[in-house]
């Protein structure tokens, strides 16, 4: 059981966590939407979820590669992180769980990197392997703390 740490710069606290699970929610290659000479763009969407009973936070990242405005390569990956009890407890107050933006950003960085590897593995040996997720400025994706309303007795 490997414990990783993330140092939050605003509070100088360390959040201990471990990967609990990685799940490929969605993967699709739509060859009919692909044109080798078409303009390729990329769209990225993120969201977060929690499971208070397991002290688990998850980051969901979906990336669409589009050709002439139609998706031809779609991948969605979720990384589930088990959060140390002390850190989880510090997130809980006033019937909500708050994940600081700095840690949420770190979660997205981990998930994008994981997604990049899964994409490579699933497209290896195909013409679609040339589409690599470029560096993503994750701070533009997470601008504020993530809050969840919960029953604190269960959290």
Structure, described:
- Strand 3 (40-51) and strand 4 form a beta hairpin.
- It is elongated, with a radius of gyration of 17 Å.
- The strands form two sheets. A five-stranded antiparallel β-sheet has the order 1-2-5-4-3.
- It has helices spanning 85-91, 101-123, and strands spanning 4-8, 13-29, 40-51, 56-67, 70-83, 92-93, 96-99, 146-149.
- It is an alpha+beta fold and 155 residues long.
Radius of gyration from the alpha-carbon trace, in angstroms: 17 Å
Please outline the major beta sheet.
5 strands, antiparallel
Q: Going across the major beta sheet, what is the strand order?
A: 1-2-5-4-3
- Low-pLDDT stretches are none
| Helix and strand run | EEEEEHEEHE
Total helix count? 2
Distance between the termini: 23 Å
Q: What is the strand content?
A: over 45%
Helix-and-strand structural type: alpha+beta
What is the approximate shape? Answer: elongated
Task: Summarize, please.
By secondary structure, the protein is α+β, with helices and mostly antiparallel strands.
Annotation keywords:
155 residues, alpha+beta, five-stranded antiparallel sheet, three-stranded antiparallel sheet, 2 helices
What is the element layout, followed by pairings?
Elements (H helix, E strand, L loop, with lengths): L3 E5 L4 E17 L10 E12 L4 E12 L2 E14 L1 H7 E2 L2 E4 L1 H23 L22 E4 L6
Antiparallel strand pairs: 1-2, 2-5, 3-4, 4-5, 6-7, 7-8
């Amino acid at each position: 059981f490997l414990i990783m740490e993330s140092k939050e710069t605003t509070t100088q606290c360390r959040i201990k966590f471990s990967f609990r699970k990685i799940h490929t929610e969605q993967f699709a290659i739509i060859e009919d939407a692909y044109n080798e000479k078409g303009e390729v763009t990329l769209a990225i969407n993120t969201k977060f979820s929690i499971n208070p009973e397991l002290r688990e936070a998850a980051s969901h990242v979906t990336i669409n590669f589009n050709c002439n405005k139609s998706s031809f390569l779609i991948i969605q990956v979720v990384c589930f992180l088990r959060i140390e009890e002390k850190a989880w407890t510090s997130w809980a107050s006033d019937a909500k769980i708050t994940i600081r933006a700095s840690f949420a950003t770190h979660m997205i960085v981990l998930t994008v990197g994981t997604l990049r590897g899964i994409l490579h593995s699933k497209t290896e040996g195909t013409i679609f392997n040339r589409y690599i997720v470029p560096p993503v400025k994750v701070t533009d994706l997470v601008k504020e703390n993530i809050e969840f309303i919960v029953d604190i007795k269960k959290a």
